[in-house]
Amino acid sequence: MFFQISKNSIFIFLILLLPLLLTGCKLNLLTRQNASHIIAETNNLNAQETLPKIKNTNTWWNKLFNQTFSDKDEKIKKELIELTKKEYGHDIKVKIINKTIGVYFPVNNLLDNQTGDQNTEPLFNKEIAKKIDRVIFLTHRVALSSDKKLDFYVITTTDIKSGDELSIIGYFPDVLKVRLLNISKGEFSQRLINGLNKNPQAIDDWEGKNFKIEEIFLPNFLVGQIAQRIKIATTKKDLKEKNFFWFQKKETKRTFETKKIQWGLKDKIFTFVLEIPNYQKENTREIFNLILKTTAHVLWAYDFDYNATYILIKNKNENKKIFFINKKDLELFRKEKIKIENLIN
Hints:
By secondary structure, the chain is an alpha+beta fold. Helices cover 39% and strands 18% of the residues. It has 10 helices and 9 strands.
């Protein structure tokens, strides 16, 4: 009996496991030299990486599960719309794409100071801000209580008179963490990605006919969050108090300011291109220290698997400073086991 079991075990090992052991794994070893292919692509960076789509097959198995997910989606949408109307009297539209839920919230007078001055910090209407907070709260409540696992939410609040549009993107696991006090409210607010834009098509669009959402993926979310944190940290504007959805900017004595930042992610390598018109050589240590601290903190906090970080800084004279750091060194820097001077040199 023992001999028979042994024979079967040897057979399974030879047929199934041995080929895997022989083929092995291809290691992706990164050096400063092999970053050259990234440098050539920095002028064509996109805000989001194009991810491959899963082929849709028409098997009975897929039809069954697609129908199940569709039913769950409709249930979530209906519950959120009805609950928002019943509890607060707000009219919203809801869309769901796989694990991303989008909410369209049309309002009047989103902003208080519509002066047209781009240098003026936008001030949100306090009453509208409270309404947005209610919609976000109910989105959390409905999504987290459903039996479908949703990862991201996009709350789009649109002023149907001016076309001003505020988008807030959040990650549901972060919501759970702040509720369980695993992260602070301040940290949670910095994990939200928000942006204020003009959308002329949204004017008079109470029904959300032009409302569209795209599926959010964690890598895109993280690279966008890091870029936003860096942009805010390298802005010299000072606000005395938090302006609702905008992060509080502390007074800074920095002599530089980021005017534009591009970001991307390819082959597990994060890429950031910063345009700092008044960048000088003496700013190098301060700039890279800030960028690396931000990047290391976010990637560690989300336990994200990556290979390296590539940074390019340009000033008004198109002079460039290039910096490349692999995952191992970045983690040592986060733990304060290696200094920024060692990395720059």
